[in-house]
Amino acid sequence: MLNRDGNRDHHADADGSSGGGSGSDSFDVIIDVVAGPGMPLFFERLKPTGRLVVVGAVGGMPRADFGMTMMAAFQKSLTFATFSAATVPEEARRAVRTEQFAAAARGDLRTVVHEVLPLEEAVLAHRKMAAGEVFGRIVLTP
Predict the structure, then answer these.
(1) Cβ neighbours of residue 112 under 8 Å, at least 6 residues apart?
(2) What is the largest CA-CA distance in the chain?
């Protein structure tokens, strides 16, 4: 979830509940990579003129009546959009993939590491991930 300053402010679980951040309750932009039945709850988290963009649906399809939640907030002038890489021509996707691999080879890409834990704390790592406390990856070391 983003605010107008462009900084990531929060992440949330599929049910729209807070997963951590600075404490803001509403956002200018929410990018949802999961969708699923809980997606409509994100409309309630948007500020006036806020935007919800769905870029993935690994959680399945939203409820059939999800548009009713958005229309209930009509006075907030919300925007809803979807994006699928399938709409980008294969040649353009290939060019992006080529540049991504080149950037990785140059060392230009950085992984977001939330925390490094010893392998013995793998159970704790899983609990943190399940609780939505993690932004990025947890690295387990031997």
Answers:
(1) 135, 136, 137
(2) 54
Which is it for the CA torsion 22, 26, 27, 32, positive or negative?
Answer: positive
The predicted pLDDT at position 23 comes to 47
Q: Where are the alpha helices (DSSP H) in the chain?
A: 66-72, 90-106, 122-130
Q: Are 40 and 69 in contact (CB under 8 A)?
A: yes
pLDDT digits (tens, 9 = 90+) for 63-105: 888 888 888 888 899 999 999 888 999 999 999 999 999 999 9
Element (H, E) at 140: strand 137-141
Edge-to-edge strand ranges of the sheet holding 79-82: 27-32, 46-54, 79-82
Give the C-alpha separation, 93 to 54, whole Å. 19
Burial readout 75-91 (b: 16 or more C-beta within 10 A, e: otherwise)? ebebebeeeeeeeeeee
Q: Is the pTM of this model over 0.90?
A: no
Looking up tokens 């399940």 gives 130
Q: How far apart are CA 92 and CA 104, in angstroms?
A: 18
